[in-house]
UniProtKB/TrEMBL annotation:
Domain Tubby C-terminal, residue spans: 5-262
Positions of region (Disordered): 124-165
UniProt name for this protein: Phosphoric diester hydrolase
InterPro entries cross-referenced by the UniProt entry: Tubby-like_C, Tubby_C, Tubby_C_CS
Family annotation (Pfam families): Tub
Organism: Solanum tuberosum
Family: Belongs to the TUB family.
SUPFAM superfamilies per record: Tubby C-terminal domain-like (SSF54518)
Biased composition (Polar residues): 124-135
Length: 267
């Protein structure tokens, strides 16, 4: 993932790791270090066996997770000289699910994203959690861990599939994203979405997400149509990602990564 307005500056990188029953996309601030012991490690995306359900994990709990601040910190230090502080924890911050297409009907994939760390009120004038500080900077030494902390760290290191869990928002208070409904184009004989020129190549991976709004929330129709995240193809192995508040770059990037996993039961 690179920023178009900053001379193709690298923002985030991911490596896919296939396992017997799942697939992991490990996410880092650099393209050559995906170790959980590195200060450039951000988190991971994990799929189920069928590639229909995903969990986004962050290396920091939601109250202190900020891609912007961590990016600023990484630029202050040489990424080749990061300190090793032991394996990072993984906090579940979102779930993504793709609907099964058992009837093999035509149309784009359908997905839902439950953002456990982002309140629904953030699209109504409220605010999403924005951290202002971190427990410690790269240059500070970690304090000696307690006996219980040591046991938890050892457990996490030996069992990568077991992750720490921050306290999530109640489901009814969490922001839920869904696919924006496409329109059938009679002349082209295909389902179409208006990407406003940002997507130029047809692909099953293309999507737009809007907030899923229940009638009691009384949100104006125009607000419900606002695209919060869109992703699409513009060339061979080249895609664009556009996101807006209240998603962070990390959350948006992880959601888009889920589109690359094989989903034969959703096509």
């Amino acid at each position: 993932m690179t920023a178009e307005d900053e001379s193709d500056k690298l923002l985030l990188a991911a490596r896919r790791i296939r396992r017997a029953t799942s697939t992991d996309f490990v996410i880092s601030l650099v393209a050559d270090d995906f170790s959980r012991a590195s200060n450039t490690y951000l988190g991971k995306l994990r799929s189920n066996f069928l590639g229909t359900k995903f969990t986004i994990y962050d290396s920091q709990p939601p109250s202190v997770a900020s891609i912007q601040e961590r990016s600023q910190r990484s630029r202050r230090f040489c990424t080749k000289q990061v300190s090793v502080t032991g394996p990072a924890y993984n906090y579940s911050i979102a779930n993504i699910s793709y609907e099964l297409n058992v009837l093999r009907t035509r149309g784009p994939r359908r997905m839902h994203c439950v953002m456990h760390s982002v309140p629904f009120s953030s699209i109504q004038g409220g605010s999403a959690p924005t951290p202002t500080s971190f427990p410690r900077s790269f240059g500070e030494k970690a304090s000696p861990p307690s006996v219980s902390d040591s046991k938890e760290t050892a457990k996490d290191a030996s069992s990568p599939s077991i992750s720490s869990s921050a306290v999530p928002l109640p489901l009814q208070e969490s922001l839920v994203l869904k696919n924006k409904a496409p329109r059938w184009h009679e002349q082209l004989q295909c389902w179409c979405l208006n990407f406003r020129g940002r997507v130029t190549v047809a692909s099953v991976k293309n999507f737009q997400l809007v907030a899923a709004v229940a009638p009691p929330h009384n949100i104006p129709a125009a607000e419900q149509e606002k695209v919060i995240l869109q992703f699409g193809k513009i060339g061979k192995d080249i895609f664009t990602m556009d996101y807006r508040y209240p998603l962070s770059a990390y959350q948006a990037f992880a959601i888009c990564l889920s589109s690359f996993d094989t989903k034969p039961v959703c096509e």
